[in-house]
Fold these 2 entries.
Entry 1:
Amino acid sequence: MSPTNVLSTGRGRPAPGPRALAALLGTTRSQVLRQVANRAPATTNEIVAALEVSAATVSHHTGVLGRSGLITTRRDGASVRHTLTPLGRSLLDAHGLPSAPPAPPRP
């Protein structure tokens, strides 16, 4: 791999990437976190459809991510919406993984 294709942590080391994030959080939980980051905000049903896992699985992982301070969750009528926190964004950034810009505040 050429140096121009390697993401950097700013300290001369390559960013860890998705495999390191999966090793840290677990494969499914890291995928849930990335879905939340890329949808801003993501509903449970959107994550279920994207990852082809059960709603119970997504709810379990979003609960753990929420208790860890990586996402916030709120009910919006019949939907449950998950949003990345600054800590979650920092974790993805540290792994060289893109995330959508923060959602604008609701009126």
Entry 2:
Amino acid sequence: MYAALVTLTIDPAQAPAAAAALMNDILPKLTAAPGFVSGQWLEPVDGRGMSILTFENEERARAAAPLLGGSAPGVTIESVEFRRVALTAP
């Protein structure tokens, strides 16, 4: 498995619209992406957010990267790192 570690900034004034875009646009596309396994979106602190998305393999993770930014208003993707998942626990 591979993880995409995403860091982003969110304009606080546009946070409600960004959350709606995540739920209505970005999330359905990501969960339908080939090889998608799971995703965790961490609550933003001081306008900085993070997410951890897992995929079956590195190829699938990298192929889904363009979906990460989507069209969420006020959101800027700062970085996306790809890492092999060494261990998971329930």
